[in-house]
């Protein structure tokens, strides 16, 4: 093993990153973004800013003979007042496609968030270092998957041998957009979010635009999908619109049409899969908004409840049942002229039987075991020989 002072520092550039739409240079290093600057400039929402800066699906990818790797990173961690402490973000090392190590970075910045008042208090700390040693000799392809739920500035990459960007493996690119469930909320690690699991099983390259709390049919997100090269596209629509109580049925249908129209401007014939919501008992027939259950917070845990009235559906308030029906209708209508547009009922990924066996711990988000089930089912359904992402000679 080479001595510490023999390690080579390689600048982290966009060429070494996969899964990011843009890379911002900061005073510390580089910050991967999952939405471009033009999109970020069109919405000042703090939740969106936090979600898109968390690098779900983003990974360093390079080829090297190195046996020692060090990555300096500056994380931004979250602390929720009254809730249990969150674990540090997980980094995962893949060598030639196989998991070879996990680690974390201590220190960094902290956002203390009071869910009751909406206040956010930042504090600042130093970067930390992730180290992997004892890697096998010889040329190998390395991926370091960044924490899916922790904003991460990359400060320095050091190795004991030169690195070069990983070669293109010629795999299809799957571009996915969805809510916190697609983002990976409560998954155990970055490679075990359901989209990452599905991508691994299907042998495709993932670009994950799952944005916690922010799958809201925003036009700038549709334009980001439109402008991102991809071979396969999926959009998972519904849960955030209900738990934010953002719009009524009259606005929802045209907004879905407009979103899909924009995506089709850049991808006129690409397989495009519209996925309706997974089962979520609190919102199946009860509109939003969702709120934290005070009794649960008092016990030091998170639990969401629906605060709407089922009778409000008559005035156009959205529930998951209403959204599923409308999405099925819209896709059926459009697919008459768009044979590459497809629909998947989200309850095929997580339905009533799954809810009985693996209930959502906080009422909204699946746990690690459920992420695995959803990922396996999506891969089996979407990439089946007769599925929307079927193998066409790949």
Instruction: Note the total helix count.
Output: 11
Query: How would a textbook summarize the main sheet?
Result: 6 strands, mixed
- Nearest-angstrom radius of gyration? 21 Å
Cα end-to-end separation: 40 Å
Oligomer: single chain
Shape: globular
Strand percentage, roughly?
25-35%
Low-confidence stretches: none
Which structural class do you get from the secondary structure elements?
A: alpha+beta
Give a count of the beta strands, DSSP E runs of length 2 or more.
Answer: 21
User: How helical, in percent, are the residues?
Assistant: 25-40%
**What average pLDDT do the residues reach?**
94
Describe this structure in words.
There is one protein chain. The protein is α+β, with helices and mostly antiparallel strands and 394 residues long. The protein contains 11 helices and 21 strands. It has helices spanning 37-40, 46-53, 180-183, 194-202, 219-227, 239-243, 249-266, 294-298, 320-335, 352-357, 368-382; strands spanning 8-10, 17-18, 22-25, 30-33, 59-64, 69-80, 91-95, 98-103, 109-113, 120-123, 128-132, 140-145, 151-159, 163-165, 173-178, 205-210, 232-236, 272-275, 290-292, 304-306, 341-344. Strands 1, 6, 9, 10, 11 and 13 form a 6-stranded mixed sheet that branches. Strands 2, 5, 7, 8, 12 and 14 form a 6-stranded antiparallel sheet that branches. Helix 4 (194-202) packs parallel to helix 11 and helix 5 packs parallel to helix 7. It is globular and about 70 Å long. It starts with 7 loop residues before the first strand and ends in a 12-residue tail after the last helix. The mean pLDDT is 94.
């Amino acid at each position: 093993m080479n001595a510490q002072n023999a390690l080579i520092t390689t600048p982290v550039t966009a060429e070494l990153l996969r899964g990011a739409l843009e890379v911002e240079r900061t005073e510390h290093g580089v910050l991967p973004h999952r939405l471009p600057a033009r999109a970020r400039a069109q919405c000042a929402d703090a939740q969106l800013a936090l979600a898109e800066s968390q690098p779900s699906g983003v990974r360093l990818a390079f080829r090297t003979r190195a046996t020692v790797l060090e990555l300096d990173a500056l994380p931004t961690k979250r602390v929720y007042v009254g809730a249990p402490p969150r674990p540090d973000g997980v980094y995962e090392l893949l060598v030639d496609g196989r998991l070879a190590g996990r680690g974390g970075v201590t220190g960094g910045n902290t956002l203390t968030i009071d869910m009751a008042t909406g206040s956010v208090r930042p504090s600042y700390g130093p970067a930390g270092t992730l180290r992997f040693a004892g890697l096998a000799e010889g040329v190998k392809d390395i991926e370091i998957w960044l924490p899916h739920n922790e904003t991460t500035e990359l400060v320095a990459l050091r190795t004991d041998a030169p690195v070069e960007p990983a070669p293109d493996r010629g795999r299809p690119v799957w571009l996915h957009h969805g809510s916190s469930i697609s983002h990976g909320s409560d998954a155990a690690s970055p490679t075990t979010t359901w989209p990452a699991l599905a991508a691994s099983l299907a042998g495709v390259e993932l670009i994950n635009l799952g944005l916690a709390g922010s799958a809201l049919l925003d036009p700038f997100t549709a334009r980001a999908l439109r402008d991102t090269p991809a071979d396969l596209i999926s959009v998972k629509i519904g849960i955030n619109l209900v738990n934010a109580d953002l719009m009524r049925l009259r606005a929802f249908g045209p907004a879905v049409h407009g979103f899909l129209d924009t995506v089709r401007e850049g991808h006129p014939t690409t397989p495009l899969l519209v996925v309706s919501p997974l089962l979520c008992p609190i919102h199946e027939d009860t509109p939003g908004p969702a709120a934290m259950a005070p009794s649960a917070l008092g016990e030091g845990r998170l639990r969401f409840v629906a605060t709407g009235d089922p009778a409000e559906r008559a005035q156009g308030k959205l529930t998951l049942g209403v959204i599923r029906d409308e999405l099925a209708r819209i896709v059926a209508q459009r697919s008459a002229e768009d044979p590459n547009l497809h629909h998947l009922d989200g309850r095929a990924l997580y339905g009533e039987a799954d809810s009985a066996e693996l209930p959502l711990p906080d009422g909204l988000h699946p746990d690690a075991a459920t992420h695995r089930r959803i990922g396996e089912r999506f891969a089996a359904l979407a990439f089946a020989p007769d599925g929307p992402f079927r193998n066409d000679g790949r």
